[in-house]
Amino acid sequence: MGMPRGVRQTKGQGQSLTRRYWHEVLGFNYRMTNVAAAIGLAQMERLHDIAARKQAIAKRYRELLGDLPITFQSFDPGVESSHWLVSLLLPAGVDRDVVMAHMAGLGIETRPVFHCAHRMPMYARDDHFPVAEDIAARGLSLPSYPALTTEEQEGVAAALRSALQNLG
Fold this sequence. Notes:
Blueprint: H1 5-11, H2 34-65, E1 71-72, E2 86-89, H3 96-105, E3 111-112, H4 130-138, E4 139-142, H5 150-167
Antiparallel strand pairs: 1-2, 2-4, 3-4
Helix pairs in contact: 2-5, 3-5
């Protein structure tokens, strides 16, 4: 049993399955190199350990920062997150860029959450999505790589606490 026609065509950059170099639809090159496949397989062998570590990091941040006026994402019962990123919402009115700059000054890299698609030039629209725009403005992702130590995590928490105190 082969791959469905639409999938084969899409992964083949939209090229016709019967006429070479004739592109009938928009497609992409999703074919993987042998090196990328080898790295992926090695990571799959570590998946359980990585996921458990990411879970522990997210849990620890919630413990360390639970008394601050920030909001972590909540999950419905039975839903388990991969905690790819540990993100939070800063209090309303707090300038995220100032918080990020303060933390960067202490040697801690943070990231803003993703921008709203409807604000990017290629998808720009005059629509207003207040919830998404609020999350995009206040969302902050903390360091959460699997090798993050407990001490480093405590330093991140102290830096965020310091940044918020300096704004108040």
